[in-house]
Amino acid sequence: MTLLNVPSYRYGLEDRPPRWQNLIYGLQWLAITVPLIIILGKIVARIHFTDPMAQITYLQKLFFITAVMLLIQVYWGHRLPLVTGPAAILLVGIITNAGSPMDAIYSSMMVCGFLLTIFSATGWFTYLKNLFTPRVVAVILLLIAFTLIPTIMNLVIAPEAEGSPLQHLLFSLLLLLVVVALSQRLSGLWKSTLIIWAMLGGSLTYYLLFPQGPSESAQVPFLASFFRDVTFHVSLEPALIVSMLLCYVALVINDLGSIQSVGKMVLADRMPVRISRGVKVTGLVNLLSGFLGIIGPVNFSLSPGVIASTSCASRFTLVPAGVFLFVIAFSPKLIQYLGNIPPVVIGTLLLYIMCSQVATGLRIVFESTDPLSMDNGYIVGLPMMLATVVSFLPPAVTASFPALVRPILGNGFVIGVLAVIILEHIIFRTEDLERG
Fold it and tell me: What are this entry's molecular-function GO terms (predicted)?
């Protein structure tokens, strides 16, 4: 496979830069990937475990599975310069179903990963494509951000950390304003790696403002394998599978959009084949993620900015990043150092990341026909309101729901997705037909 001649790129899709340059490019990709793994991984690890060593082991598995997907995609999947990492939408699924046993949650991910692989291998996506109109896609993108608000709020307030909730809130607002201001003024690689600088600068500032008392840190070896901690038992709950399946619908939309945007940018050939292989690899690796008991990965949409800033479209520049991710996966001591990020900083940066999600969703809405119509208002607004209400229901209320339907009725994202599909394809479709 060859890339069409694109004179604006120093290295094309199939070019191999010199070793030292390839290493530098790989480190740039690594600088983008590591913060996202740490931010999302620490949130999920804290939900599942209170033991610091168990949290580090979870992050080891997450670094490992990200490296596996990255290298398989580069050499066999979509074969594009496209970075991967844990999927934010699966974070939504895990948080909203946190009351379910871990084995049931990750068994559901295994089932969904298997179905995703089958759909991509058989071409069933063509039958589902009409279901995801621009308004449905926009609402799904918005729902991912809005249903994470309770989690972001708890991270920002951080009642268990040094300082008062008000101090944490003020710190978070100031950090967010600084990050947004820098994102508007920086360009090129500095803008692409803004998250890692914000993570480092924010953590340093936090510890200067809120000095931490002496604490006993876990004795962590420098090198250690996590395979001995893989103990998995299949536990299938139909309602939980349905709940996670709707989360995977959003994951597929993200995956397809990322592959298509990068493929278009580098003028890659045989895009239908690349998309089919890329989604198939995503499904298989998510199946493996479920077996390992960790959040599944997805292809990120951050790659076009990196390609534009470096003028390098070679897929082989991601290979060093994948190798470094493997090294980090077997170095718990390094992960311990990387994971010393205050919850307030994690919550603030997650809020910043979700802002781009909201911007993308709103852009799709305003690019549609008659974006300010009442129909658009109901189709977009009602699912958002329902999802927000369900997301803020007290745990005692959701616990009172029947166990069989709790993963559906207690999941704001699922309620929002079902609502927008009903509004788009049943209620307002009927009105459109009557008007016609």
Answer: xanthine transmembrane transporter activity
CB 117 within 8 A of CB 283: yes
Give domain status of residue 10, yes or no.
no
Phi and psi torsions of 86, nearest 5°: -60, 140
The per-residue pLDDT for range 209-264, each reduced to its tens digit, is 988 765 555 677 777 777 777 777 888 888 899 889 988 988 888 888 788 878 88
Average predicted confidence (pLDDT) for the chain: 84
**pLDDT band for position 66 (50/70/90)?**
very high
Cα separation, 186 vs 215, whole angstroms? 38
Is 20 exposed, middle or buried (CB count within 10 Å of its CB: 0-12, 13-18, 19+)?
exposed
Find the mean pLDDT for residues 46-68.
92
In terms of pLDDT, which residue wins out, 310 or 276? 276
As for how many domains the chain has, the answer is 1
Helices (H) and strands (E) in the chain, counts: 21, 2
Q: What is the mean pLDDT of residues 182-210?
A: 85
- The verdict on residue 339 lying in a domain is yes
pLDDT digits (tens, 9 = 90+) for 274-289: 988 999 999 999 999 9
- The reply to whether 1 falls in a domain is no
* pTM exceeds 0.85: no
Taking the CA atoms of 76, 77, 81 and 83 in sequence, report the sign of the dihedral they define: negative
Please give the structure tokens belonging to residue 338: 């990387």
The H or E element that residue 85 is part of is strand 84-86
CB atoms within 10 A of CB 309: 16
* Dist. CA 390–CA 392, nearest whole Å: 5
DSSP-derived letter for residue 84 is E
Q: Print the domain residue range for 283.
A: 19-211+218-435
C-alpha dihedral, 327 to 329 to 335 to 341, nearest 10°: 120
Q: What's the rounded Cα separation, in Å, for the pair 168 and 32?
A: 26
Report yes or no on 13 lying in a domain.
Answer: no
